[in-house]
Amino acid sequence: MREAAAAVRRDVVTPAERAARGKKARSALPRSRHAEYDRDPTAPAPLELLSRQGASRVPELLPIRDERMALSPFSYFRGAALPMASDLAGSPRTGFTVQACGDAHLSNFGLFASPERRLVFDINDFDETLPGPWEWDVKRLAASLEIAGRDNGYTRKQRLEIVTGAVAEYRLAMREFSGWPVLEVWYAHADVDTVRSTYARQLSAARRKKLSQTTAKARAKDNLGALRKFTEVGGGQPRIASDPPLVVRVEDLGFPRERATAVIAELQEMLAMYRETLEPDRRLLLDRYRVVDFARKVVGVGSVGTRCWMLLLLGNDDQDPLFLQAKEAGPSVLEAYLGPSAFGNSGERVVVGQRLMQAVGDIFLGWVRATGLDGEIRDFYVRQLRDWKGSADIETMDPVGMRAYGRLCGWTLARAHARTGDAIAIGSYLGSGPCFDRAIGEFARVYADQNERDHAALADAVRDRATSPGGGK
C-alpha cells in the first residue's frame, strides 16, 4: 500500500510544473507555426476518402449525402470531417491531448434541455470524438467560421475578426479555467439566460429578437412536437409516417413481410440490450414506455448513409410519447491518424466522449451492438430524438451576430477541453497575447481556399453523374 501511494505521489505534477511544460512547448512549437497548412501530395484525395467512407453505408442514400454536400462550400465542409482529419494529420501539434470532438464546426453546437429542464448551449455532435490534439478542434471551428462567413458574403476583414475573436475567446477561457478548482471547471456550463446576458449587448434589437425566437423554437422541439411532426394515426394509435427517402417505416423498406417482422423483433431486442447500458433509475423510467413503431431516418449532412432508426414509444397514453434515435457508430475519422479507440464498441466511444465533453447530458444516452438489416453486426448509440433541440440559423446571421456566436462556441470548446485535458499547460502555451489567434486566422483563410477547391470537385462529380446516361435515375 505504501509503495502504491509513493508511486501516485511520484506521478503528481504541480501546477507550476504544468505551466512550465506549456511555456516550454512554445520553444518546440512556436505559436506562429499553427498558421501552416500544406496538403500532403501523397495523401488520398478528398473524393477518394469520401468514397471509401461511403462503402460501409446504405448505397441508395449516398446520392443524398453528395447532393447535400454539393450545395455550398460550407455544406461540403460539414460533411468533410474525414478529409480534414487527413489534412490535419501532418500539422504541428503540442502533444497536449484532450477528449476531442473531431467535428467541432459551428453547426455542431446548439441548444438542448438539461435534466433539470434548463435550456443549455453546448457541443451537440460526438460521432467522431476521440482523445486527440486540442489544436484540431480549434482549427476545425475556425475554418468553419471562415467558410460560413464567405458563404454569407462577409468581407475579409469581417471574417478575420470573427475567426480571431472565437480563437481569442478559446484562449482566454482556457487560461481562466486553468485557475479554477477542478470541480468548478467540471460544473461550468452556459445556460440560455447566461448566453443572453453575456452577448445580448453586442446584438441589435433584431438579433436579440431572433435569439428569443430561437430559444422558443427549441423548447417547442420536444416529444409532443415530434409526435405532431412525424406521426399519423394507424390501427387506432400513432405510428411514424413514412416520408421517403428521409423517413421510411420498416414495412416500407421493401423487405418481404416475414423479413420485416423479423426486423421488428431484432429492433426490440436491440432496445432491450441498450437498456442495460443505462443507470438503474433510467432503466426504470424507460420501462414505463412501450415500443410501438420504428422507422429509418436520414440525418445530418456527413452522416447521411449511416443506419439511423427513429423509435416511437408511448407511456400512459397516445399523448405521452418518447422518441429515441439509434444511430450507427463506426470508427472515428480520427482513428486512422491517431490510432484505434480504447473502446471495442464505437457506440460506447461516442457515449463516453459525449459524457466527458458535455456539461449536462441526455438521460437516455446509451449504446448497443446489434445485427443490422443486412445481417451485419453494427454498433449504435441511442439518445432522445428531440429534447428542446435548437440551432443557430447560420445562413441569416449578420457579421456581428456571427462574431458573438463564434465567441460562444470558442468558450464552449475550451470548457470541454479543460474538463479532459491539461488546462494549465494549454493555457500557458497559448499565452496572454494574440499570437496564436492570428496564426489560426491565417490557417482558416488558407484552408477555406482549399475547401472551395474540394467543394468544386465534388459539385463537378455530382453534376457529371446527373448528366451521364442513367445518372438522374
From TrEMBL:
Annotated region (Disordered), positions in chain: 1-46
Composition bias type Basic and acidic residues, residue spans: 1-12
InterPro entries: DUF2252
Pfam families from the UniProt entry: DUF2252
Superkingdom assignment: Bacteria
PANTHER family: DUF2252 DOMAIN-CONTAINING PROTEIN (PTHR39441)
Protein name according to UniProt: DUF2252 domain-containing protein
Organism from which the protein derives: Amycolatopsis pithecellobii
